[in-house]
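Notebook, p. 212. Picked up where the previous page left off. The plan for this session was modest: take the two constructs that came back from the sequencing core last week, fold each one, and keep the raw output in the notebook itself so nobody has to go hunting through shared drives later. Recording the first one now, exactly as returned: residue sequence, then the structure token string.
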Amino acid sequence: MDFRRAPLQLLCALALIAACGDDSTVVTGATEGDGETSTSTTGATSETTGSGLCVDDAQCEDDNPCTANRCAGNGECLVEAVVSNACRPQIIVDYPPRGSTLKGTPGTPVVTVSGQVLGPAGGITELTLNGAPLEIDGEGKFTHDVLATPGGNILDFNAVDVLGSTRRRVQSFLWSTEYRQPEVPGEQMVPEGLAFYLSQAALDDGDNSAPADDIASVLGIALANFDIAALLDPKTPITSTAGYDVYLTKMTFGSTKVGLQGTDGGLFLSAALKDVVGDLKFDCTTPACILLGGDGTGGLKIDTIEVQADTMIWVDAQGQVVVTVLSSETTLKADDVDIWSNNAWTNFLLGIIKPFIMNGIVNDIVTQLDTTIETQLGPALATALNTLEVNALFELPELGGGGTKIPVNLVTEFADTIFNDGVAPPDPSPPQGGKIVQKGGGYFTMDVTPHKNEGVPSRVGCGSSDEVLTLPMAAEVEIGLADDMINQVLYGAWRGGLLEFEVPPELAESASVKVNNFLASGMLAPTASDCKDPKLLLATIGDLRFDASLVVLDKPMTFTAFTSMVVRLEIAAEGKSISIGIPEVVDIRTELNANEDNMIEAESLIASQLEKGLIDTVIMALG
């Protein structure tokens, strides 16, 4: 880094003046090599050589405390800009204040930025805001309308004066039409903060075998405990006829199958017992039947006993998913029941006992299956859906690198369920499946930051409409987090001290820079939004303030800096776990003001080093 002051050469125009040294200097603006500028002066009052060239420094004095003037050996007046805080441009922003949370009008996302730029060394030749020129009046005042987006917005001012001195001001603000301040768990929740989409395959892929990979398979595990034997009384005959007492002594089933189909407002649930078999005993009770052959045995078989039911799925006042069984039916017919005898002399009984079997044990099985759906499978389905409630403790690392974790409580509560059959109405219909919507909030567990503001800006449809959490509904299972939900977690971490830390020396130290003290304080919570680019989830970390005491090239340097950056967020889900990471910093801007005049020219070096270290730290800690 070259710390030399760049001289500005002021050339006396002999054709226009008789002598150098007048008290006033007019800058012509013709710039020559090495940053020197030729100037001409009028009204000479000092002695000259007679040729119009200066002979001493006094003849070059322009009474500008922000310039250093001297007479060069060739008789030309050389003027050097004084590099000092008093002489460099001053950018004053009256509105908005630094680190502010602004509340706007729906449909009118405009913020009027106003302020003043001063040039103590002379006039201001250029003032830009985010790279675009600003118009200033004769007093250096400016007013400019900025198009704001919900969430974080950065204002980057740059000023240049007639002597080439510069000044930068970087500040941020949050904007929305409404804010939430989540402080007490359960309050100030985002109405649609989180949602799960379950496709038809996630509800039921048609395969109930282990391992359970859909909800129907989970219910199948519950149905496998169906106690069919409890429906039997092997000591009581199911009928007594023609000298025989007929007993059903044993009954089993081979497997179960539960089916789920998305319908408008709920699910169509089916529960089936497959390969049902039973043992029959024909007990001869009269001499006549003894003559026929006496006692006998037999059996019965039913390929499938299935009960089907419509359900309605909704959320109650306590925020729990409820499954209500509306109606049920079975399509089992007499022909579906096969009865046989192992002895020819008892075959005549089969036609007699079949109605008793149908109206007795088979009817009992159907009734019990119906009861099982209502009392077991319905509640089990509700339990399975209620497990989707996401209540978790997020722990974000404090950026100082000391290993401190910032805990944030993520609290959710079911808000709505939306199930569809995939056909009109509605037209067009969402795919067959279900969407489970939860309201949620992020809550700090300790209040550390000294900065207070309006809270978390709502996305509000990117400033133009009500916020609705939408999902693509293209994958088998989808989890969606609203920007507002993410921002509540980030706000909770900010309140908990995420951006309050002592900067580790390695962030800024090098062979030429030593750190005495370096403190960081984030004036605004990191705020995510996809309003700038719908394909990217970006977060703004605005007005991260640094106060530092360094030694640069053996010279003391103290400064205050403000950094605003835009990072890319990455949301990942595995099971019920959700993680938020920062894999990339896409933009970073820093205003750094040295308090010592002799260290002003080191500002760009330190700002660059600070930005590099900050990028590495953020990605390492939160990537």
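Okay, moving on. Second construct, recorded in the same format:
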Amino acid sequence: MSSFVDQLLAKHHSVYTESITHPLTNELCQGTLPDYKLFTYLTQDLKFFQVGLNLFGKTLALCDDAKAAITLGKQIGFVSNDENDYFFKCLDQLKSENLVELKLKVPQMLQEDPITLPQVQSYIDLLNYLVFECNSYVEVITFMYVMEEVYLGWANYHLEKGTIPKDLAYKYNEWIILHSGEAFTGWVQFLKNEVNRVVTTEDAKKKSEQIFLQTLTLEIDFFGACYDYSEDPQ
């Protein structure tokens, strides 16, 4: 018999597939995503990331299993270092290499306090609910799982297809490395196992599925908003 999470993935297969095959991540993996689109995406994702660090703490606080809590604690350290470093290094690189394009296409993303796209704000609103209002480990761990599963999904989609160039630039390749490989795959599997472990009642199943589908939809909207954004009338 398939697990609860596998049942959700099968039931919402079309939405999940859409989330891991978006033009933004397709072009990122192929090394063809324009700098201004990548800059917009990373600027918006950094906003999400900074709030998201609080979610790790909330998840750890709600976790009822000592072994699982240790895994969560270790991941906080990894995310705080490796992903955080990539954001700032890559954003600086994009500004140094293509500032003219960024000023033309997305000048508001260059501000000290960049605008937050509406679709991104909707995602952050859910994140804030989970951090500051929600006390359901089922909802929080489901959100964590879906968020990370989408990233593993789009990376593996292209790794398995063999569409990632061998000489891919750092600005693309490092983001793929951070969301693939044995360690990240193990982390996503841990989250999946946690969802399966704690979803034991009909009420829990209902809550988990609602967050599952909501998160997938918000991921798609996030990618779309960043991909489509431009202030250049041309």
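Notes on construct two before I forget. The chain has one domain: 4-228.
Flagging for discussion at group meeting.
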